[in-house]
Amino acid sequence: MRNFLLASVATLGTAGLMSAAYAQTTTVVTTAPAPVAAPTQGQSAWKPAASPPAGANNNNDKEAAALPGQLANPTPGTIVVHFNGLVMAEGAARWTSVDKRIAAAPAAGSQAAVLGLNGAGPVKLAPQSIETYARLFAGMDGMATNGLRYGAAIEVRQNFSGQISNNSSSGASGYSSMETMFVRRAFTYIAGDQWGIVRVGQADGLISLFDSGTTTFQFLPSGNLNGGDLQNMPGATPPFVYLGGAGNEYDNAKIVYLSPQIAGFDFGIHYAPNTSNGSGISAANVNANNALSGSGIGTGNTCAVANTGCPTLSTGPGVQDGSRSINQTAIGVRYQGVLGGVGLLAYGVYEFSGHAQYSGTLAAATAGNPAGSGSRFTGQYNGLSIGSGGVALTYAGFTVGGNVVGGNMNGQLGLQPKGGAPLFGVLAGVKYTAGPFTVGIVGEEFWMQGNVNLSGVTQRRGRGISAGASYAVAPGFTVFGEYLWNDQKQNLNNFNPAPGVSGTGSNANNTYTGQGVMIGNLITF
Q: How far apart are CA 251 and CA 208, in angstroms?
């Protein structure tokens, strides 16, 4: 009996201890803090930035010294990582000189004629459209414990290559499934306040970094005259020859150096071996698909077999091979400061290059020219040799200024054909900013060779005017409106020839005009 009582007491005691232990465990669970919500999963509310970054270039990576701006400046031993984006939604209406015409019947014996699809009759485009696109920006800015700054940036864009004439698949789903994402900028950098910044990769050269859209008056979210959203008028849209923020200026792989500022001045230099963006394909992939070898298609910077069309070509017999620039180099100087209460940005850049050697034979008055046209085009080109400069003055909210470019160039960093006309262009603008409100106007006119098959015969003129206003409704939310007019003209050049017909030597459609209006909103985050 005694043993039973002792066992009973021990059992009750153990049960009591276990109950106490369970009670303590329950208490801990009950009083534990709630898990913190993941900020990237939309479970936390954050105070918005006044102007979220909307590009690969930011206040940490575009000058020798880190600048105050949208992104935090890293301190020794820290990094700043950011992931941003934008979505643009717009409504537009456009009218051009060729938005209506009479379509001719297909040639006898063609597939369309055999199928009985004669296609003859009036054709007219509807002017109205609703447009949208998205972009993503990722980057890291860091500082080592010894003060060395370093980082990288990526810009990804939406591609609309599927938006083509295709009567067999005209549904929206078919168009959407052909959209892709592609890398527009990708670069790394190292920097020091005392010695400068070095940027390497697919990124902006001196003109884009020095200008930043200021002297070229890119004051609207739509881009104004720099391939702006409203300029979707093939033929009527002049190429943006002033180069600040232009794709052909920043999309090839290059190395850029910018010095520290001294009394408001800094200087820079950049070098690009060719027009390639520096992407590549492995030798294994080339060997697995010999169709790619040396074709320049999908081989990026690593053509395994020399052939016409390679992005790294230095000599070739193709009619366009001689138009490839190589060893593209730029040097320049910039001033940023305040003089007598007036903000001043001014810069000048000289850019030059070599060119791939044309090893074929092309007689004058060929390649689509009618006999006796007098064309001097022989397939040979001059290397780049251009001067570019801009100035902008800002006082009491008003900014006035302009940009000029001239020399051996044809289009947007295209090479001038030997015997062809040089390029000269001038742009001027004015804008007014008061708090969240901006309004302005910018105009341009330039002359260049244009159609290389008309070298020594005629040259091209381009003009454009963009006017508009924007309003920052809330942090990261901007609305805007724009009016645009532009044209291109070149005698003996048909801007809209019939399919399969050369436009060279024609007196039809020598002037191509377009205009439009747009309203839209931009969300950045």
A: 11
3-state SS, one letter per residue, for 12-51: HHHHHHHHHHHHHHHHHHHHCCCCCCCHHHCCCCCCCCCC
Tokens of residue 392, six digits: 């902008």
Return the sign of the alpha-carbon dihedral for residues 283, 288, 290, 291: negative
Q: What is the pLDDT of residues 47-98, one digit of tens each?
A: 888 888 899 999 999 999 999 999 999 999 999 999 999 999 999 999 999 8
Residue span of the structural domain in which 295 resides? 277-311
243 in Cβ contact with 412 (< 8 Å)? yes
| Together in a domain, 362 and 304 | no
The amino acid present at 58, given as its one-letter code, is N
What is the number of structural domains in the chain? 2
Instruction: List, in order, residues 6 or more apart from 25 with CB less than 8 Å away.
Output: none
pLDDT at residue 130 in the model: 96
Query: Same structural domain for residues 374 and 289?
Result: no
Long-range contacts of 176-182 (CB under 8 A, 24+ apart): 181/136, 181/156, 181/157, 182/156, 182/157
318/223 same-domain check:
yes
In a domain, 327, yes or no: yes
Q: What's the pTM value of the predicted model, to 2 decimals?
A: 0.85
Residues 420 and 484 placed together within one structural domain of the fold: yes
126-143 tens-digit pLDDT: 999 999 999 999 999 999
Residue that is last in its domain, among 268, 294, 311: 311
pLDDT score of 513 more than 90: yes
Same domain flag for 513 and 422: yes
CA angle 402, 495, 445 (to 5 degrees): 15
Whether residue 215 sits in one domain with residue 284: no
Q: For the residues of 203-254, what is the DSSP string, one character each?
A: ---HHHHHHTTTTTT--STT-TTTT-GGG--TTTSPP-TT-TT-HHHHSSEE
Measured in degrees and rounded to the nearest 5, phi and psi for residue 355 equal -150, 155
> pLDDT tens for residues 478-509?
999 999 999 999 999 998 887 777 788 889 89
Q: Are residues 283 and 379 in the same domain?
A: no
In a domain, 194, yes or no: yes
Is the pLDDT assigned to residue 21 strictly greater than 80?
no
Distances (CA, A) of 76 to 79, 138, 142, 143, 148: 9, 21, 8, 5, 8
Report if residue 250 sits inside a domain: yes
Average pLDDT over residues 292-308: 52
